Amino acid sequence: MSIGIWISLIAYFALMLGIGVYAWRKSTSNSEEYMLGGRDLPPSVAALSAGASDMSGWLLLGLPGALYASGLVEAWIGIGLFIGALFNWIIVAPRLREQTERYSNSLTIPAFLANRFPTHATALRMVSAIIIVVFFAVYTASGLVGGGKLYASAFGGDYMVGVCITLGIVLVYTVIGGFLAVSLTDFVQGFIMMLALIIMPAVILYMGQGNGVDQAAARLSDMQEGYLSMTHGLTAIGWLSAMAWGLGYFGQPHIIVRFMAVRSVADVPKARNIGMGWMAISLLGAIGVGIFGRAYVERNGITVDDPETIFILLSNLLFHPLVTGFLYAALLAAIMSTVSSQLLVSASSISEDFYRIVLNRTASDRALVNVGRLATVLVGAVAIWIARDPGSEVLGLVSNAWAGFGAAFGPLVILALTWPRMNGAGALAGLVVGAGTVIFWIYSGLAASTGLYEIIPGFVAAFVAIVVVTLITRDAGEYRAK
């Protein structure tokens, strides 16, 4: 591999580790600093951290790969995500920032639920912590699959070595620097990702013999009927399933925890505008990589065995090694930003919602920080085991985990923040029914046979369960305003 690529990658790794050391020196003295950065994130850092931790390798691997293979109809997933993210910033962000601080300065989502519904506190913390760890192990595995594919496709190395290297680098800065390190690295990684997704489509069209938008469109239209149509072959269930990805935002702990850490409620609108602008540019860029990348490949007779590696392939073919290294760093940024966030949220739940509640109620802040660090490593080890199959699809793993969180926590978070009447029994019912429905829908084969994305039945069932159980049970001490 060219020395130029190594120079870019080494510079990137050094920057990430340097941020980790800075965060360690600045913000790891107690649990609030290690897990929420002291609730002092500027709007720009909170916005890009939420976006980068959200998109993961899916943005540079999964979405371009889906568009490359099936055409513009796959863009509906991006549209659904954009709408969902916008409503998440409007409905959840300001309320969660205010209420998590008001309810006993809650540092995790399970802790907020326990403080919001005290008569069911232990059960809520246990169940929600289990759901977080299980689904985040799967979600983290999707990022490690992306790292393994990059190492195997770009460097010709062993897939599992790539998986282990990806996790190892993330563990170093996450274990050392905690939430502040994760947020600051996300901020930098978000910029890198956006720049890469601006550069690559432009180069494909105007420097990579793509000969502009018109000729690319003509070639794609000739190649496959309806390839550039957003409705060709689209069924009502298919459209609903694509748009339903947006429902998942309300229940993603690694995203909404950024709302808890933003500097103040007054900063939320500014963070929202920055975050949504970043997301719009990045999604359009990812769509361009998939669509225009297909035009370039067809024009030049190139064989692509795995559509999800189109970004990696074009990085090698079209750019100077120094730029190729930067683009590889963008892919690693997408992967690592999400993996680090997921590992930290999982570790926070294990230390705050299991260790402190079950094993050591008098644990010191320093002990909880150390338990969180150990838990980060353990969850990473489980994710490696899940990611061991090189044939795993990034988009498939992400979709399962996204649905699990969206259904289990989405209706629960929305109603807990907006419905004073809601009680702990309803909250517990929503968690169990939402997660259980998603798991049943996947493993019963209904997802495959009906084509209906599992988040839809899971979200609806959880919402109904919360409302019904709350209305038939009454605990005035829980929902009275604090």
Automatic annotation (TrEMBL):
The keyword Cell membrane applies. It is a multi-pass membrane protein. Keywords: Amino-acid transport, Cell inner membrane, Cell membrane, Ion transport, Membrane, Sodium, Sodium transport, Symport, Transmembrane, Transmembrane helix, Transport. InterPro entries: Na/Glc_symporter_sf, Na/Pro_symporter, Na/solute_symporter, Na/solute_symporter_CS, Sodium:Solute_Symporter. Pfam families: SSF (PF00474). It catalyses: L-proline(in) + Na(+)(in) = L-proline(out) + Na(+)(out). It comes from the Bacteria. The chain crosses the membrane at residues 6-24, 75-96, 117-139, 159-180, 187-207, 227-250, 278-297, 317-346, 367-387, 399-418, 425-443, 455-473. Belongs to the sodium:solute symporter (SSF) (TC 2.A.21) family. NCBIfam families: Na_Pro_sym (TIGR02121), sss (TIGR00813). This is Sodium/proline symporter. It comes from Thioclava litoralis. The gene is putP.
